[in-house]
Amino acid sequence: MYDFTYQRASSQDEAISNYKNADDARYLAGGMTLIPVLKLRLDKPSDLIDLGDLEDLEGISEDNGNIVIKAMTNHHTVNYSDLVKKHIPALATLAGTIGDPMVRNRGTIGGSLANNDPAASYPSAVLALNATITTNMNNIEADDFFKGMFETALEEGELIKSVSFPIPEQAGYQHFPNPASRYPIVGAFVAKTGGSVRVGVTGAGPCAYRQSEFEEAWSDGNMDPERIKDIKISPEGLNSDIHASAEYRAHLVNVMARRAIA
Amino acid sequence: MKFGIGQPVTRKEDPKFLTGRGRYVDDIELPNMTHGYVLRSIHANAIINSIDVNSAKNSPGVISVLTGEDYAADEIGSITCDSINPMLSKGEPQLRPHPALIKDAVKCVGAPVAFVVAETLVQAKDAAELIQIDYEILPSVTSVLSVREKDTPIVWEGTENNISFTFGIGNEGDVAEAMKNARHITKATIVNNRITTNSMEPRSSIGAYNKGEDKLTLYSSNQSPNRVRSELAHTILHIPENKLQVISPDVGGGFGMKGGFYGEDVLVLWASRKLGRPVKWTSERLESFVTDSHARDVVADCEMVFDADGKVTGLRVSADYSVGAYVAPSGGISPMFFTLLLSGVYAIPAISVVTRCQFTNTISTAPYRGAGRPEAAFVLERLMDMAAQELGTDPVELRRKNMIKSDQMPYQTALMHAYDSGEFEQIMDEAVEKSEWHSFQSRREKSKIGGKIRGIGLASYLEGAAPFNERMEIRFDPGGDVTIVAGTHSHGQGHETVYSQMVSEFLGVPFESIRLIQGDTDKVAMGRGTVGSRSMTVGGSALHLAAEEIIEKGKKIAGHLLEAGETDIEFDSGVFSVAGTDKQINIVEVAKSSYTLVMWPPHLGMGLEGIGTFNPGMGNFPNGCQIAEVEIDPETGKVELVNLVIVGDVGTVINPLLLEGQIHGGITQGVGQATLENIVYEGKSGQLLSASFQDYTMPRADDLPLYDVSSHPVPTTTNPLGVKGAGETGTVGAPAAVLNAIVNALSSVGVKDIEMPATSEKVWQALQNAA
C-alpha cells in the first residue's frame, strides 16, 4: 500500500468538497474492493475519503411502489431486510450470495455499483428491475449507468446517494459462482415489472448487460423457461479466463436465466 | 488409562492456537530490526543486461540494496539439490546450483534478483520500485507436456534437452516378455496436474547476527530446523554448525513445502551479518503462490499388461516430471517416491519405470503432502479402472484378482520395496461394504430422475512412510515434571498431545506434567524434523527407547532408595517396587531423589533422563481404500462430491481423534487436486495466472461431504509401537478415488477420461464433445 491521506467525512457536502480539493481522491465506502487494490499497490490515490460516518446514506424504505436503498447500506442489511424480503425477495437473495459474512457486513450497494466490477452481483438486478440511481447531481436510469468494465456514467467526484428499485410482480436471481472467488462467473436476474420482462446478466461480459433475446421470448409476460431453452447466446465479446471460456459463459447465461425463474 | 495410547485425547495445543496465542516468526520483533523485500523477475526466461540500484539506494529509509554481484563477491554458497537417490539415478544429474540472488539470467517468474533492506517494509517496497533492470526476454517453456514436444525452448542454454536427472528401476526385459504374451494391454497417458500448498502461515524468516559471539540466529517457518542448520552452515555460509542457531517456533502448516530452507533464509542471514542488524522477511500471499515450491506436475505414458485371466503381468511407465528451473534441495524426493511405488497394492511380476525430471521455466517442485505417492497411486488406480472398462470386468474384482494377499507378507515387489504387512483385500471389502457399492445402481437411477449423473469410484493404495532415524530425549526436572526434547517438529500435527500420551503410558507420569520442546537447534541436539509421515514411527519409537532407558536408570535409583538389589526392582505404571514385598516408590519421587544435593552415591549420577534413537530401516507402508461418489449436473458440469468412504491401515492408532483429523485434512487436499486446484502458467509469457485465492481454488467446507473414516489397523513389525505413517495417506488415495468416480459418471455417456482438476467447464466440455 502506498501512503495516502485518510479523511473521514462528517457530511455529504464535506465529502464532495474534500474530493474536489484533493489531488486524486477516492471515496471509501465498504472498501471490500478498494482496500485489496491498495494493498496490492494497484492504485495510488492521494486521499481516501471515508464515508463511514454518513448515517444519512444508510437505510431502506418503501416509497411509492419502489424500494429505495441508500448507498451506504451493506449487503447483510439488504439480505435481512424485511421490506426487501417482502417486496423483492430475489434482491435479498442476491445480496446474500455476495462474498462471505465479513464482506456482506462491510460491502455496500453504492460501492458495488460505483466500482462496476464485471462480476459484481448488483448490476444484474439494477438492470433487470430498471432501477434509478440517485446521485448528488442526477437521477440516472439503469440503462444509462453501466458503461463498460469498471466504467459508469458517474462524473468525477459524483456521489451515489441511493438506488430506487420498482417493485416487480415477479423476479428471480441465479448465479454460477467462480469456484475460487465465488463471484458470479455468470449471474442472471430476471424480473417482470408492470407486465414487461427484463433480464440482467452479470459476470459474462466486460460489464453487466440485458439479454434482449430472452426478453423478446418472454415479451408477453409468460416467463416459461422452455421458451428460451434453445436460444443460443453468441460467445463473441464475452469474458474468457482460466475458469470459464466465452463459450461456457454463453451457455451458462441460458442455464442461469432459466433457473432464475424456475 | 484416560490419557494413554489409543485414547481420543483432545489437543493440548488447541487453547493456545485457538485463542491467538501462537507465536509465529512474523510475530517476533527484535530490537533494531530491519525489513527486507525481495525484488523478483517478472519474466519466465530472460538475460539480465543490467541492474541499476542507485536510485533505490538513495530512497528514504533504505539501508542496503543487495544484488547477485554482492552475493558472489561475498562468496555465499549456492543452493543445490541434495536428494538424488543414487540407487535410482541414471546418468549424470544436471542440478544447476543457484545463488539466492540471481545474477545474469533469470529462469522463472519470481526468481530473486535484488534484496532491499530498509527501516520499514513500505520503504523497502518503495525503493524496489526504483530498481531498473534491463531484461532481454527469451522463449520459455512452463508446461511439462510442452517439454515433450520437439523444438521446445531450452531452459538452460547450451544443453541439448531439458532433462535434469533421470530415475529408472525395474526389469525392462521381463516387461517386454510379458507384452509378447499379453492378452490385453491398457495404454494411457496420465497427467497429474501442478498444484501448490497454501499453508495458512506464509513463509517468514528473520536473520539476527550477534557480533559479540560471532553467531547467527535464523528464525524460520520450516519443518526441519536441524537439517536447515546443517545445510546452511556447511554449503551456504561456510561456518561451524554451532555458530548458527535455527529456531522454528510455531509454524502454521508445512505439508513438506517448508521441509527445507529457501533462498530467503540465506538472504536474511547474510544481510544481518553484513549490516549488523536483524532482518525480517515475510512472504505475502501472492509471493507464496509465485515462490513456494509447487508439487506434482508429471505426465506418464503407461502400459499395463494383462493375461487371459485378468492378471497383471507387466507394467511400463515412462514419465516426465517437472522440477522447475532451479531444482529445490528436496527436488529429488517426489520423483523418487513416484518411481518406487508403482507396484502399489498389487502383485505385478514385471515393472519398468523411467522418470525423466525436466527443467521448465517455473518455480521448483518439491514434496507436498504425499510427495510422489499420490502420483503413483493415481497412475495405478486410473489404469485399473480403464482396464476394467476395456475388459468389461468389475473394477473391484479386477483389483481383487491382482492384490497382494495378506498371507503373501512379507512381499518383495518387482521394484525396490518389500512390504512387511497389509490386508489390502479385507480393507477394500470393508470400504465396498461401507460405501454400499452394490446398491449404487439404485442411487444412480434416483439421481437420473433429478436430472443428475451419478458415479462411483474407488482407489486402493499404498505409500511409503517414515524415512530416516530420529532422536528423542525425556528428562525429569528436580521438581519431578517431565520435558520431552523432540527431534521432530510439530506444525499442526499435535505432537505435544500424542507424545504426552505415550510418555504418560510408558512412565506412568501425569499427562499434564509433560511439556514438549522442539524447533530450536540450541535445545535439540539433533533431529530430522517432521516430513514423510515419520513422527509417530521414528519419534514415537525413539521416545519408547528413551523411556526404557529411564526405567533402567530408575531401577538403580529405586534399588538404592528401597534398599534392595537393582535386579529385584520391578516397574509397572509409574511405580518401582521390590519383587515379593510391599515396598514401592513412585517414579516422580525417584526422579526428585535423583537430584539429591549431598550424600548421593556417585554411581547413580545426577538426574533422571533418557535418550532414545530409532532407525526405521525402509520404513513402513500405510495403505487404505477410498471410495468416492459424485453427482454431476450435466447442464453446468458441476461435480458434487456426495460421499467419501475411507478405510485405512496406519498400524497402531495412538490417538483416533487426531488420526481422524489427519485423514480429513489429507483427503481434502486430495479432493482439492481432483476437482478444484490448479497452477496455471500462461503458455507464451510464462506468467503465473493462478496467483491469488481469486483464481486458485482451495477446497472449502461446502465443497465436501462428511467423510466416513474408519481404521483397519495391521500393526507393522518394523517398529516397537506397530505404528505406520498417517499424515499423508488421505491425500494419496483421494485424487484417484474422486477422479474414478467422475469418469464412472461420465462413462455412462461415453467419456473415457478427464484430466484433473475436473472443473465444471472441463466436465461440461467433455459432455459436449461426447454428445
Write the layout of secondary structure elements.
The complex is a heterodimer of chains A (262) and B (771).
Chain A lengths: L4 E4 L3 H10 L3 E4 L5 H6 L7 E4 L9 E4 L2 E5 L4 H6 L1 H6 L1 H9 L3 H6 L2 H7 L6 H7 L3 E4 L3 E3 H4 E3 L2 E2 L7 E7 L3 E8 L6 E10 L2 E7 L6 E2 L1 H6 L28 H15 L2
Parallel strand pairs in A: 1-3, 2-3
Antiparallel strand pairs in A: 4-5, 5-10, 6-7, 6-10, 8-9, 11-12, 12-13, 13-14
Chain B lengths: L13 H5 L15 E7 L5 E7 L1 H4 L4 E6 H6 L15 E2 L14 E2 L5 E7 L2 H8 L3 E6 L6 H4 L15 E8 L1 H9 L3 E13 L7 E7 L4 E6 L4 H13 L6 E4 L15 H13 L3 E4 L2 H7 L2 E13 L5 E13 L8 H8 L10 E9 L13 H19 L3 H8 L8 E2 L5 E2 L4 H11 L5 H10 L3 E10 L7 E7 L5 E5 L8 H13 L6 E4 L17 H27 L7 E4 L2 E4 L5 E3 H7 L15 E6 L8 E10 L6 E11 L6 H20 L32 E4 L17 H19 L12 H11 L1
Parallel strand pairs in B: 1-13, 11-12, 15-16, 21-22, 28-29
Antiparallel strand pairs in B: 1-6, 2-5, 2-7, 3-6, 4-8, 8-16, 9-14, 10-11, 10-13, 14-15, 17-18, 19-27, 20-21, 20-26, 23-24, 24-25, 27-28
Helix pairs in contact in B: 10-11, 11-19, 15-16, 16-17, 18-19
